[in-house]
Amino acid sequence: MITELGHFALILAFGVAVFQTVVPLIGAYKRWPGWMAAAEPAAGAQFALTALAFGALMWAFVTSDFSLRLVVLNSHSLKPMLYKISGTWGNHEGSMLLWVLIVSLFGAMAAWFGGNLPQSLRARVLAVQAAIGVAFYAFILFTSNPFLRLATPPFDGQDLNPLLQDPGLAFHPPFLYLGYVGLSMTFSFAVAALIEGRVDAAWGRWVRPWTLAAWIFLTIGIALGSWWAYYELGWGGFWFWDPVENASFMPWLLAAALLHSAIVVEKRESLKSWTILLAILAFGFSLIGTFIVRSGLLTSVHAFANDPERGVFILMIMAFFMGGALVLFAMRASALEAKGVFSIVSRESALLVNNVLLAVACFVVFIGTMWPLLAEMFFDRKLSVGPPFFNAAFTPFMVLLGLVLPIGSAMPWKRAQIGRALKPLRYVFVLAVTLGGLAYVIQTGRSLLGPVGMFLGAWIVMGAVVDLLGRTGRGQGRLRRLSRLPRADWGKLTAHAGLGVTMAGIAGLMAWNIDDIRAAPIGGTIEVGSYTVQLDNVERSQGPNYVATTGYVTLFQNGAEIAQLRPEKRFYPVAQMPTTEAAIDYNLLRDVYVVIGDEQDAGGWVIRTYIKPMTNWIWIGCALMALGGLLSLSDRRFRVAAGAAKRTTPVPAE
Amino acid sequence: MRALLIAWMLLVTPAWAVQPDEILSDTVLEERARDLSKGLRCLVCRNESIDESNASLARDLRILLRERLVAGDSDQEAVDFIVERYGEYVLLNPPASGSTWLLWGAGPLMLLLAAGLGYGYLRSRSAAPAPDQTPLSPEEQARLDDILKR
Prior knowledge:
Chain B: It holds the Pfam family CcmH. The structure holds two protein chains of two kinds. By secondary structure, chain A is α+β, with helices and mostly antiparallel strands.
């Protein structure tokens, strides 16, 4: 019964979305206030109905209702509750339902918090957002309906892929989707602005919080996924340049670019048409990501069970929205006149450099991801493009970006002098070079990656701090002024520093990783660097829905015991799949990562030990970036702008 | 039931990536083998190198690679030997030859293009007259003169 209610609510939501697309658009065109205002209750109703449908599906998973085909395929009665809940979105149909739930959530938020938008712009934004919803409701209802029943329900389900039964991965998809779909909001704003034929500073200010929110969610989602890969896949890789990972990384890069170019639109009324184009492309890459994951076109470790019919449907959705938006862009872009005048050396230019580097980096990832397909289609060559290519082709852009970041962010608007921007940074530069040099001296006979990473990390972090201090002026009361700086300035410091920390972490891990693979008998020891790994015992035990082989390992450093580790190997009989649970001794400087392998014919167990320097910096950096975004989002000026429309007197911009 | 599960598990446990019995005693050769195997694709897996993969084909390739190195092949010869048998597809890092130079050149070319476009835009912005710098109309000029003369 609840399932049928959910199914019905989803169909109703589809109907409401169609209404919400058509009526406000006509209303905005004809200037009929009543028709425009209809968008708001519709957005609320659409969200409520979709939430009902999603709740019904989740209920079916929680109660293990095996009359539902989807539950049978992806759940099992013995599965822990957390994974029954996360199982709702751990499959194609459920994840698409989560996707439209978030589309409608963002639409509803724009309706609730968009009080300060001009009425016609708001109506158009909500209509475009609903149009995206319409496409995906149709996709769900016609090709991937989650509410299909089975005539003869089986006794139990087939279990969720055991790799996905993990807390890190339970929350990775929702965050990622919040990010992907958050970009649909900036897309709606861009298309609505093109229909209106007007992009001004106010538009830049409205669109920034949405972009920022999407970028924060993408950052968290990607970091969770990467962290999961690190501890779950059993050999400590954190990024594989897999098509699906790239699919989430490309929107992230473009969202980061968009964030920065929207600042130029808001503060200086320039770069308008480029910003609009970026907003369209960023969502386009979200759609490409969806297409890659669900069409099966590119082989990937993450692929859902996919079939070509769905791929074609998503391709059509993508062609419609991208084609439509780009045609609109071509027609209207010339009307978007830039107002601000600035010299070639200025913050505007620096932000443009940031955009060029991020967009080209995104292009490199894109071409690398699609190349196997292109090469086969046009050159009849079957080849692979893997991590070595991406590491070589992508990294230079990030190094360049890191190099110019502190200089660019120190520049004033309109007209800057390179000398003046560099002056406060010279000590930072010397210190960063010293640090990089130190790293070079300590390591022997390894690549330049480590030292360069250390230099960049120090340069960006200290550069961001010096930049913030520079805003407090001179003389007395600097501390007081520091505490009064707008949150956005603190957000900038935190996010930029986070990027530096992540860069240093990635370089450190990739340059100085040590691994060791050996067999040890029970009671035996293995020496790795200054560490000793002692295998005390191996036991087999039964978990809720798996059997486990657990190693009891003691870790010594220079003879002193520092940790007890329990690496585990699990086997999930229902899904017929093994997983590894690495045991990790976390530390700010290094992780000791121990994995237990098979019992050897000659006796003893395979023990893999990895010393991974600075790994946690990667995720600390990501957390800092997300925190920086949040600080910026909480800036008073966004709220002042939100309240401005309600007052009669305008609030002067800062 | 539990004993059965454990027995079952022992039957089907897969082999994990590089095994101790594959490792060469010569550490220099082993280092080279590990580096090379990170750039070779496991053909039956989805996007994994043979160094990471636990498929049996990957194990065969790892052993084959080590045999070639022990036989005195250079890195290039050993990789060529495998490419000859398994095709270009096995290389995770496509060599910049033939049409592949497009792939390698795409990034730098795009950067040049974007930098050119960006520079053109900047030039136009710095040369554009500021919108509020339109010359004063005669009435405004007269009013200004009036104010300044006071």
